[in-house]
Model the fold of this input.
Amino acid sequence: MEAIKFDFNNMMSDFIGEQGIEEKELVGASDVAKKAFDFFKANRGTAMMGWADLPYNQDEIVGDILTTAKSVQKDFDNFVVLGIGGSALGPIAVFNALCHLRYNDLPKEKRGVKFFVEDNVDPERMLALLDVIDVKRTMFNVITKSGATSETMSQYLIITDILKKALGKDYKNNIIATTSEKKGNLIKLAKQEGFKTFYIPDGVGGRFSELCPVGLLPAAVLGIDIKGMLSGAKFMDELCSSCDAFKNPALMAALLQFIAMGKGKNISVMMPYADSLKYIADWYCQLWGESLGKAKDLDGKTVNVGQTPVKALGVTDQHSQVQLYTEGPFDKVITIIGVEKFRGDVVIANGAEEFKDVNFLCGHTMSELINTERVATEYALTRSKHMNNTILLPEVNAFTLGQLLMFFQLETAYCGAMLNIDTFNQPGVEEGKNATYALFNRAGYEEKKAELNAAPKKNAKYII
Ligand code: PA5
Done:
């Protein structure tokens, strides 16, 4: 089995001295790890931890997804996801990881339907999309668990209006709804209009939803091996079945971050050394930031915890951010994601024999270069005593990607339990959503509107 590996040597004091974690600290925190593990084990599959069971309980739904995907591939030229946050970042990350890096630009015979994810309400972006697709030949997958998110519902309204004008009653064949079975407006609209619908299980929050129909349908439409992804996730879940952090990679990763936070490491940098994994860093940033950034703990105490997630790309950001990471404050943990075997390679050609400073590159491959630079960055970070760790994928495929997604989800759940917070809510996001409703005069938000009106007015002297 191609297992991903978690190498945390460079988090340890043996390698980075006083900035690191001593082994006895890790051993001493074994009760913290065990408590978090037991909490997760006791609650998995229930309340908002339904996502943990997704690798095990979706046989029927996967069948429906594959059948639907086949008919989309046959009847449409484009597949557009309308969603935001957890309803968009997973599909983007998986598309980028497992499809050709220039997928939409490939000639038709070398790709499937074109793929777009619209996760903003910038009017220029909507107009740009409409310039490059024929709506009649496009399947729109509206994804919103709450069925109430302003961004997604406005996109839905814009698109249905255009579709109705173009297709009349048949417009419903160009929309698939992915939403909660019981709550929200989208499910009501879907039933009323007769859209094909997939459900987001109750216990699966947006940022934990990539392995349910939110992510599986777009992936299947793209021809991605969704069963492989789910079996990778299952494999990782099984790998993480011990309460001993030394035998449970996600638990160890969570414990290290938890201890690091206690040492003032308030920033978590995610830095894949592979373009295919670039958007995994975006997905991670939401998962880590929204799950762990909380004002109160479970006992109601004000804690204001969380680590600020930052995305970076190796090697590109070696020429941008790594100066800060190696010489700046000791306030970060840098997680590098490496890939052992790339799916293709390019030899660096000869052509500069007389220039020794360039010629040393010739004959090597680009994969050798990117991986050597990764190792060199690990070395530089370690030498400057900055905490870093590496997740190594044997290669990027559906199985290893499924493992990686599950690894981060488990790490987040364990770390949230260690912090004694509600990992699965997002009161801060809801606050912004509610303020938008109030500003748009939505009924029921009058009190919020009054609160906003009572807020201090901007002072003109501070705007120059
Ligand atoms: O993780 C979350 O729950 C959020 O980021 C949501 O995914 C995001 O706010 C979109 O919500 P919805 O799917 O309800 O439109």
